Amino acid sequence: MPHPLNGTKTPGYNRAMQNVIVIGGGISGLSFAYRCATEGSGALVLEAAPRLGGCLHSQRFETGFWFELGAHTCYNSYGGLIEMMETCGLMEQLLPRAKVPFRLLRDERVRSIPSELNFFAILASLPRLFFANKEEESVERYYSRIVGAKNYRRVLGPMLAAVPSQDAGEFPATMLFKKRPRRKDILRSFTLQGGLQSVTDALAQQSGIESETGLSVQSVTRIDGGFCVQAEDGRRFEARQVAIAVPPPVAANILAADFPELSAELGRIATSSVTTVGVVVAKEKLSLEPVAGIVGIEDCFYSAVSRDTVPDEHFRSFSFHFRPGTSPAKRMERITQVLAVAESDLESTTERHTVLPSPREGHAALAAAIDEHTAGTQLSILGNFFAGLAIEDCITRSFAEFSRLQQ
Ligand SMILES: Cc1cc2nc3c(=O)[nH]c(=O)nc-3n(C[C@H](O)[C@H](O)[C@H](O)COP(=O)(O)OP(=O)(O)OC[C@H]3O[C@@H](n4cnc5c(N)ncnc54)[C@H](O)[C@@H]3O)c2cc1C
After folding, report:
1. If you average pLDDT over every residue of the chain, what do you get?
2. DSSP 3-state of 198
3. pTM of the predicted structure, to 2 decimals
4. Ligand 1: does its nearest atom lie under 6 Å from the Cβ of 204?
5. How would CATH label the architecture of 95-101+271-357?
6. Considering just the CA atoms, what is the radius of gyration of the chain in Å?
7. pLDDT tens-digit profile of 38-81?
8. CB atoms < 10 A from the CB of 52, how many?
9. Measured in angstroms, how far is the CA atom of residue 313 from the centroid of ligand 1?
10. CATH 3.50.50.60 fits 18-60+79-91+194-270+359-406, yes or no
11. Residue 158 needs a FRET pair 20 to 30 A away by CA distance; which of 110, 301, 393, 406 works?
């Protein structure tokens, strides 16, 4: 089939120079491509996986049932996301999230969060809330001060680990939750029909955005007037501007040959991997009350995020986010224990591996160093390791970088 931009898909063919190539088709790459498309230049997105979306990964079934293997919740404070959803005509597809609680799992018992908190310690710490300052603080130091060290260790620490699916104690406190203006006319928290991947699906359909999936990029090098993008299958692409929106270790590899200093900075960003196993179970097989999710305390999983927030008539699902090093056998054993079902009761099992940044003290300086290397060039580094890990943080970064390249 001829390629809509260049007329051919023959391997090895050197395409005519593109305006913009985006490497990585997650929300970072696609929100950058969206800006390119709406401002006129268009973009070609190259994605290694067979599907676009990255961490926006909605597992869908022929029956119409779906569940999230990755991100699950957006908020009315996600202004960049909402702007794109409005352009893509997605606002009619917004779904509210049912108000079901998060629970904790300690010593094989599902418990409510308040039952595990020591409120005297919170009361005693409360006055410190007025003086607490997130700047220069780690998540553990900041939140221990507010709820007391024991409450942090027993309850809040594991809950905060469930947010980025890794121990978040050493994260800079400023990176976890952000105050942003809210769109009061929109649901406070929401998902979409078909799941959050509907956003990246719709972005990819925008006129001006072309994409190729199943194409892993290996390197980006300088050429006259732009960049050469070399794909794993031997094809070479040329572009005036390149935006790289892949996890930091991958970006470091892609840039190693021609941008060694930038590559070294990217290589200094710590990362953590999480294996997610999503399972679907017929409703009648489960006695567990409806939950938004279960947070594992001193367990091999950080959290099991449920689809009970968008109840289905027949099925329930849980995405278990496991700590690194948990064997496949242990993962299955734990899932069946927690849900109190037999393996044969699982209607479907899907696995996903994700690499996430693990920002530490000094992260802002690292991010600034990356920006110094790309300043004044037509090369852009995008992703969830600049402003923060949330979807909106990725979009904020992409929009800001698009503006920089325009200048
Ligand atoms: C389990 C989980 C739950 C989350 N929940 C929420 C939530 O509820 N709300 C929220 O706001 N945020 C949430 N987040 C965070 C948010 O989803 C992510 O930070 C964000 O989606 C990352 O987007 P990205 O495009 O930067 O990276 P990714 O989504 O990781 O995309 C990078 C893309 O690059 C591709 N790629 C990799 N190597 C190459 C290569 N060599 N060539 C071409 N392509 C390549 C990958 O296949 C991938 O598609 C969650 C994250 C996870 C993992």
Report:
1. 93
2. helix
3. 0.94
4. no
5. Alpha-Beta Complex (3.90)
6. 22
7. 998 899 999 999 999 999 999 999 999 999 999 999 999 999 99
8. 23
9. 30
10. yes
11. 393
